């Protein structure tokens, strides 16, 4: 089958065998010629039933070109980069192990890449709470910390701002761009309980700055399965701190004027967020926790930036 492969679907996975199984079953239901794509499952040191789930799926679906790859170097970026290295397709599609795609997902996503000027495309990520009650404080804005992603466009739309770029749970990139512009940054890699993020955002930003289009494909969605342990404030704090750390790494500089600019920016935005938080509390607005988290994430940057500065750019862990 390899001679006709156009697309490589890369799934990095770590200790989520039950969710991975749902994602793989969704791939088996894709409305797309199986001879035109391959699936690369990159096991990033799992110690659960992940290998067994993969072997059973491979045996049950001989019509699919599936490879199981073990990557010992821990980290989401490390695993995805390994998938890119092993890929045979000219288009790399990233899925998370807990992000089962819709049947028409691949066909619709690849249509955007028929435009030769498009280097990266991504679609919505729709949260699936699997019948669980959603806490009242977890409104639409905070759900972005659970990997909810949707933009207000109904047609394929070019994106130019980093905060709009697609998520790694639903993203396609031309393989050649990894070799021309560099692979995913491993210093922004999510490792076990270290909730760093933004490796895919930084990659999309490089693609955009190199003159390629980054586009949003509204009709190419995936589900994002939400486990019970994420429906609490502790997890939201955990994710928020990871975003703050990621921002510090992305904006790191040794130049004094840039350092001062970022300190001033953090202080200004923290003050603005504190104002809106105070207003929400005074008005007894039910969404005060959303304002608090937004303030808290930005305020976290200031001590983290000091730590990064005086540690000579070393780890923020």
Task: Describe this protein's structure.
The protein is of the alpha/beta class and 317 residues long. It has 2 domains: 2-227, Spore Coat Polysaccharide Biosynthesis Protein SpsA, Chain A (Alpha-Beta Complex), CATH 3.90.550.10; 251-310. Helices cover 40% and strands 16% of the residues. It has helices spanning 17-28, 50-60, 76-86, 105-112, 175-181, 199-209, 233-250, 256-282, 288-310, and strands at 7-13, 37-43, 65-70, 91-96, 118-122, 125-128, 157-159, 170-174, 213-216, 222-225. The strands form 2 sheets. The chain has an 8-stranded mixed sheet, with helices on both faces. Strands 6-10 form a two-stranded parallel sheet. Helix 1 (17-28) packs parallel to helix 2 and helix 8 (256-282) runs antiparallel to helix 9.
Care to count the β-strands?
Answer: 10
The assigned CATH architecture of the largest domain is: Alpha-Beta Complex
- The arrangement of helices and strands along the chain is EHEHEHEHEEEEHHEEHHH
Low-confidence stretches: none
CATH class category label of the largest domain = Alpha Beta
Briefly note the structural class of the backbone: alpha/beta
Biggest sheet record: 8 strands, mixed
The tally of domains stands at 2
Strand residue percentage: 15-25%
| Adjacency order of strands in the biggest sheet | 3-2-1-4-8-5-9-7
Task: Give the overall pLDDT as a whole number.
Answer: 93
Radius of gyration: 20 Å
Helix content: 40-55%
CATH topology of the largest domain: Spore Coat Polysaccharide Biosynthesis Protein SpsA, Chain A
Topology:
Elements: E1 7-13, H1 17-28, E2 37-43, H2 50-60, E3 65-70, H3 76-86, E4 91-96, H4 105-112, E5 118-122, E6 125-128, E7 157-159, E8 170-174, H5 175-181, H6 199-209, E9 213-216, E10 222-225, H7 233-250, H8 256-282, H9 288-310
Parallel strand pairs: 1-2, 1-4, 2-3, 5-9, 6-10
Antiparallel strand pairs: 4-8, 5-8, 7-9
Helix pairs in contact: 1-2, 7-9, 8-9
């Amino acid at each position: 089958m390899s001679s006709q492969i156009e697309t490589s679907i890369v799934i990095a996975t770590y200790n989520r065998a039950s969710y991975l199984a749902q994602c793989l079953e969704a791939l088996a239901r894709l409305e797309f010629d199986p001879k035109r794509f391959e699936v690369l499952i990159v096991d990033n040191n799992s110690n659960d039933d992940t290998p067994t789930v993969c072997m059973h799926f491979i045996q049950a679906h001989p019509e699919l070109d599936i490879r199981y790859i073990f990557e010992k170097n821990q980290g989401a970026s490390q695993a995805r980069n390994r998938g890119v290295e092993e890929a045979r397709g000219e288009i790399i599609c990233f899925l998370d192990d807990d992000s089962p795609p819709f049947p028409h997902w691949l066909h619709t996503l690849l249509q955007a890449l028929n435009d030769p000027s498009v280097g990266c495309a991504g679609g919505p990520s729709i949260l699936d709470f699997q019948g669980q009650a959603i806490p009242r404080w977890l409104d639409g804005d905070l759900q972005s910390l659970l990997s909810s992603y949707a933009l207000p466009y109904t047609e394929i739309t070019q994106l130019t701002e980093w905060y709009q770029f697609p998520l790694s749970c639903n993203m396609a990139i031309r393989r050649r761009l990894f070799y021309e512009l560099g692979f995913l940054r491993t210093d922004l890699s999510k490792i076990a309980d270290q909730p760093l993020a933004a490796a895919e955002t930084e990659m999309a930003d490089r693609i955009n700055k190199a003159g390629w289009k980054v586009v949003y494909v509204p009709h190419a969605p995936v589900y994002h399965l939400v486990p019970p342990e994420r429906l609490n404030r502790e997890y939201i704090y955990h994710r928020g701190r990871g975003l703050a750390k990621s921002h510090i790494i992305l904006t790191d500089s040794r130049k004094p004027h840039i350092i001062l600019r970022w300190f001033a920016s953090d202080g200004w935005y923290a003050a603005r967020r504190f104002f809106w938080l105070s207003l929400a509390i005074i008005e007894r607005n039910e969404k005060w926790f959303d304002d608090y988290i937004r303030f808290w994430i930005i305020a976290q940057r200031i001590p983290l930036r000091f730590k990064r500065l005086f540690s000579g750019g070393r780890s923020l862990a």
